[in-house]
Amino acid sequence: MAPRVLVIEDGSEYTESYERFLGADFRFRRAGSGVQALALLAGEPFDAVVLDMRFDRAPEGELLGDVDEIAERFNGDLVQARQFVEDHQGTYVLAALREAGHALPVLLSYDFGGEPRRWERLAARSGSVAYLADEAGPSEVAAALRRLIG
Amino acid sequence: MSLPLLIRWRRRAGAPLKRLIDREPQSWREVARIGSAIRHEVLKHRTSVLASVADALEAGDAEPARWAAARLFGPNGALADLDGYLRELDALGRAHGVRLNLAVRDPVFAPLVASARRLRGLRRPLARARPGTRAARRLVRELRIVSRGLNTEAVGALGRLIAGLCVLRVDEPLLRGVYDAVAQEPAFREQELPPLTVTADRREGDLHVRMFRSDLQDVLANLLRNAIQASLAAGADGVGLVLEVEEDEVTALDSVVIAVCDRAPSKLTTARLRGRYVARGLGLAMDLTNRAGGSIRVAPREGWAKALEVRLPRAEVVREPRPALG
After folding, report:
1. A interface mutation test: which of B38, B44, B67, B278 has the most A CBs within 10 A?
2. Which ipTM value was assigned to this complex?
């Protein structure tokens, strides 16, 4: 049976591409936010997750991360805090998945190639994770998923 | 001027992006935002499928080609979005008196625009692709060339452009330099100043932030001026500068923390800072750190009466950065 992959993204671009090009090898399901992903994972088994980083189209109520607390880093500026949470939402979702006990492999759709120090630390505490280079197309996604799922 | 020369001159006229950043260094943030949007929304989200479309066509399946055509062209397609972002850059240039010519004069954008133009020429071939034909084989070759131009070369060039914008190394000499400059100000030149202690955490390697050197110098000079004044008034001994790194547990992003410490009693609190119940200099320091995506807060620190902590997002530099502008 084809592996089941949960794609967490605020749009539908990745899911549509993957279904079109990789639909014969994987079964994809989309969650529009971390909140939706946690709900889906609670009820259905998945073999892996593809997780976007930036969520600037998700409804405010579905973003993970405490904006008020994060505003402390921006001299109390809530607009900057909200922007920060959107820009790095993938890491908040990843932390929430692990905290909820979901140990399944996660493929982050964010190129950490320019931030090796950050990736090393994130990977060290996040269990089975990998990331996609920005230029990765569907065939690279398939290869990365196969490596992760094993 | 003859007509052909005039046409040629008009095509070549205008400046690369660097001219805008040189003339208006503060524009780097907008340039980075638009560059990231092109990378993320246009290339990563939409054109990254081109190689897979070519593979499918080669394998006899033309349907992905038609599907891709719908995503790439038309009013909501990737190329229309790219045009919109390029217009935003043009408008940013005009707002600062720079007429940009990204399509011809810019080393990052000219190849991107050329690849996009080439892709535009594939609209009909994609929509009408018939596997196995000579036209389909030509289309596959073109798709691979365009894919390399957009998804490998343009993505890399944009990434390097953004990573190199406004990077400043923060180190002990920079901190000491600000203190020395403040110590030479007329108000302090004749006085015996409290001794300076600088403590830098060297375990974390080189520390970089995205901020203009002059802005960071202004912020630190304001905080040091206040610390020295308060110390002189109270007869308190010593001023400290501490440079360290703090990691965010969720995002794994670092902040560079520069603490300006003194031993003079003070009623200053973070709430007073944020409420702007402070002198103009401190207000300016708050604005400058805010613009750099950072903060200033008042915090207790062992061995000192108080510390004003400047926190700035750390820029991770892999390649040799371009020098910070400004």
Report:
1. B44
2. 0.91
